[in-house]
Amino acid sequence: MLSHERIWSALDALAERHGLTPSGLARRAGLDSTAFNKSKRCGADGRDRWPSTESLAKVLDATQSSLEDFMALVRGERPQESGSFPEGAFPPQSGSIPLLGFAQAGSGGFFDDGGFPAGQGWDVVDFPAQPSQRPGVYALEVQGDSMMPLYRDGDILVVEPGAQIRRGDRVVVRTREGEVMAKVLNRQSAKTIELVSLNPEHPNRSFELSEIDWMARIIWASQ
């Protein structure tokens, strides 16, 4: 039976399967980041709110999951692992993750529309097994001194696209113009984001959300 609870539980399970929060899954599918929040699952009048068929279709496309996979989650079954990752993307690898230099990250062809690693030209770096098994996790090598004193030339930043981002988190941001930077998220509204520079000699930055290609949280750094 397709119950309200089972449909939402299946969406939560699909997000977890791809190492995402419900908000991260919504963003990866090109939806509003609050679309799958628990507060959105019931209306102000107390009535159940169901995800739309359009939202489900976008989620299945973004995660390269089939309808059969999703229905297996609705039934509480474990879907087959095949087809879990988009073509050209990196599946989780025990002990190693994709590595790219900051300068290269500004070029085209290294990321998909959701900011996940894709394409050719990536190197690989060994990393502890737990983070490396999160889908989409990758590493960026710091180049230059623009992030001093926090990050030095040659430091490795491990980034998790799709992870929930809160105020005060250190993030990597790529603009639609191809500029890549590591900053601290100071504020995010429905239209803009404000970023604090790690290096006091560099200015803080503000962007319209329409100017941002993707933003991902830094979960670890070698220092």
TrEMBL record:
<keyword id="KW-0805">Transcription regulation</keyword>
<keyword id="KW-0238">DNA-binding</keyword>
<dbReference type="Pfam" id="PF00717">
    <property type="entry name" value="Peptidase_S24"/>
</dbReference>
<dbReference type="GO" id="GO:0003677">
    <property type="term" value="F:DNA binding"/>
</dbReference>
<keyword id="KW-0804">Transcription</keyword>
<feature type="domain" description="Peptidase S24/S26A/S26B/S26C">
    <location>
        <begin position="98"/>
        <end position="219"/>
    </location>
</feature>
<dbReference type="InterPro" id="IPR015927">
    <property type="entry name" value="Peptidase_S24_S26A/B/C"/>
</dbReference>
<protein>
    <submittedName>
        <fullName>DNA-binding protein</fullName>
    </submittedName>
</protein>
<dbReference type="InterPro" id="IPR039418">
    <property type="entry name" value="LexA-like"/>
</dbReference>
<dbReference type="InterPro" id="IPR036286">
    <property type="entry name" value="LexA/Signal_pep-like_sf"/>
</dbReference>
